[in-house]
TrEMBL record:
Keyword Transferase: yes
Span of domain Nucleotidyl transferase: 16-164
Biological source species: Paenibacillus ottowii
Lineage: Bacteria, Bacillati, Bacillota, Bacilli, Bacillales
Presence of the UniProt keyword Nucleotidyltransferase in the record: yes
CDD domains the record matches: ADP_Glucose_PP (cd02508), LbH_G1P_AT_C (cd04651)
Record family assignment: Belongs to the bacterial/plant glucose-1-phosphate adenylyltransferase family.
InterPro entries to which the protein is assigned, alphabetical: ADP-Glc_PPase (IPR011831), GlgDAde_trans (IPR011832), GlmU/GlgC-like_hexapep (IPR056818), NTP_transferase_dom (IPR005835), Nucleotide-diphossugar_trans (IPR029044), Trimer_LpxA-like_sf (IPR011004)
Protein name (Swiss-Prot/TrEMBL): Glucose-1-phosphate adenylyltransferase subunit GlgD
EC number, as in UniProt: 2.7.7.27
Signal peptide extent: none
Pfam families: Hexapep_GlmU, NTP_transferase
Transmembrane segments: none
Domain Glucose-1-phosphate adenylyltransferase/Bifunctional protein GlmU-like C-terminal hexapeptide: 283-353
């Protein structure tokens, strides 16, 4: 949909996944055996026909840049428009902007040159399959200044504690934005807003020395904006801790959960041409998600294996997440563990974590 401009804002996303975010930002964390967290946001925008997307990043983005490239998997490698990776520029001595407002202020050319007239703004910590075209239609129908996307959560979990909540009246208008823990309408950090109004609000915030667009322009709402809420009912997972990452990853081993995330519109990611997984005569695999390029000679159960993992003969992997190109040596035992990329576990080693709080090993470790 050429009328929409995508903004993926990572500025306020904290790197809370411990060892998994030592060397990368949260948006680049691998998920579901072959994807990165940002793939789900990019794919949602792609399916809505969004051809101009700005990515606001500030720190630890080398891994993310390597993954995104020119944006080809999401049809963003274009002569006009496409993917714009926009770190903030601090070279202007007159610049008074701060926080995520700095990204907009120092990259106004992106917004002025884009043909789209409506902003769809999102993050990457809320994995979902929101139909952005439907959100846009709802936004026009309500004649809203801002439309926020939310999901009613019946069973609140620990990962929902830091999430913003919405109070909504019968017409769908937002009457309150807060973080009171007993409210179940979780804001998905996604909103739709007219481009000219968005830029006006950015200028207003900068003039008043604010630094957080959502909090200062929308939540506080000093301009009296007409704010409506779009109710989303599909797949949703919040990834804001090791515990939530592990729990929501393992839930994908349930066929119903997996289909809810992947069955309808495909999720696109960086293409890697690798051979199919090879299973030797001694391999035993049960209830697991295994990407291509692996070699399995041991036992794997209730686990997620990313591309290129080697599980040698006699090794046992259970209830674990093993990322790209890890090697599990002969006779090694891995249970309730998350291994980041390129970890090598020597023969006959044993790693056992807690079923609720897994043992995490940082990338490139040799044990």
């Amino acid at each position: 949909m050429s009328r929409l401009i995508g903004v993926i804002n990572l500025d306020h996303e904290l790197d809370q996944l411990k060892e998994l975010t030592y060397f990368r930002c949260g948006a680049a964390v691998p998920f579901a055996s072959r994807y990165r967290l940002i793939d789900f946001t990019l794919s949602n925008m792609m399916h809505a026909g969004v051809h101009d997307i700005a990515l606001f990043i500030r720190r630890k983005y080398r891994s993310l840049l390597d993954h995104l490239g020119e944006g080809r998997p999401w049809d963003l490698d274009r002569r006009r428009g496409g993917l714009f990776i926009l770190p903030p520029d601090w070279n202007d001595p007159t610049d008074a902007s701060r926080g995520d407002l700095q990204h907009v202020h120092n990259n106004l050319d992106f917004f002025h040159r884009s043909s789209g007239q409506t902003i769809v703004h999102a993050g990457t910590q809320h994995i979902n399959k929101v139909d952005i075209e439907d959100v846009y239609r709802y936004h026009l129908e309500k004649k809203a200044d801002v439309t926020l996307v939310y999901k009613p959560i019946h069973q609140l979990e620990t990962e929902h504690a830091p999430c913003v909540r919405l109070e909504i009246d019968e017409s769908g208008r937002v009457t309150g934005i807060h973080q009171e823990q007993d409210h179940h309408n979780i804001y998905l950090e996604m909103f739709v807003m007219d481009k000219s109004l968005y830029l006006d609000q950015v200028r207003h915030c900068i003039a008043h020395q604010d630094n957080h667009f959502f909090r200062d322009a929308i939540q506080k709402n000093p301009s009296g904006l007409r704010i409506y809420a779009y109710r989303y009912e599909g797949y949703h997972a919040v990834i804001n801790s090791i515990e939530s990452y592990y729990k929501n990853s393992m839930k994908l081993l349930d066929q119903e959960q997996y289909q809810a995330l992947f069955q309808n519109q495909p999720v696109h990611t960086k293409i890697k041409y690798e051979a199919p997984t090879r299973y030797t005569y001694s391999a035993e695999v049960d209830h697991s998600l295994v990407a291509n390029g692996c070699t399995i000679g041991g036992k794997v159960e209730n686990s997620i294996l990313f591309r290129g993992v080697q599980v040698e003969e006699g090794a046992c992997v259970s209830n674990s997440i093993i990322m790209q190109k890890c090697v599990i040596g002969k006779g090694a035992v891995v249970q309730n563990v998350v291994l980041d990329k390129d970890v090598q576990l020597s023969a006959d080693r044993t790693l056992i974590g807690d079923s609720r709080v897994p043992y995490v090993i940082a990338k490139n470790s040799v044990i």
